[in-house]
């Protein structure tokens, strides 16, 4: 099966920083019954001297008092090493497989997949002909496809979200598709497996509206402002009366500045006020050369 090459998705550190935050959804049935919860945390860390991103996802709940695990309940660890033109992948289950490096171009690991989808949702665009591959539970190569924008109802609100559909093409089972919809800030709105009777979704969407502050029209705030203004003016005037040398110092500096008219005022001001510093840098000492 031929694959179209896609340009790499380059992200500045500031953009990646916007993708590092926790998410929490509730798991509900088709009838709206609360069955459990889904949570995921993402944080920056270091392994040795190398920076990395740690991702931990957990899903739990019950249907008719029977445990519900929408994701395998295990601590999955993989060790990936390039060796002789192959990518050797070892799991904690003592199972090892290898894939030629030539077919792993564009590989996105399980943890990186969430960051990638968050980044795409924040950008609200998918580069043309972009194809990413990943690995399923059996360490087989799978592909990720993307949906477009749509409206989604969250409680009494209807908001615009960005949908990403991920299809797992397993060699042992039929294809399985997962759909994730993200809000404008990158947080998960819903997550569901196509054909499953349960859905993970955000119950409430809170919109914070910035209200402009017109303090001049608020009598209490305007009174406080005027009182504080008069208080500062009196305090400053008192300080200047106690230190008349301030006016003389500033006047001398302005006269000297207007006489010299330097192109760069900051070095000029530094040289002018340096003798007034209480802690002057030590003068270089003159030593006789050693023979």
TrEMBL record:
PANTHER family xref list: CILIOGENESIS-ASSOCIATED TTC17-INTERACTING PROTEIN (PTHR15505:SF3), RIIA DOMAIN-CONTAINING PROTEIN 1 (PTHR15505)
Biological function: Plays a role in primary ciliogenesis by modulating actin polymerization.
Family recorded in the similarity comment: Belongs to the CATIP family.
Keywords linked to the UniProt accession: Cell membrane, Cilium biogenesis/degradation, Cytoplasm, Cytoskeleton, Membrane, Nucleus
Pfam family, one: CATIP_N
Domain of life: Eukaryota
Compartment(s): Cell membrane; Cytoplasm, Cytoskeleton; Nucleus
Any one GO BP annotation for this protein: cilium organization
Protein's name in the database: Ciliogenesis-associated TTC17-interacting protein
Organism: Dicentrarchus labrax
Domain Ciliogenesis-associated TTC17-interacting protein N-terminal positions: 12-67, 74-197
A single Gene Ontology CC term: nucleus
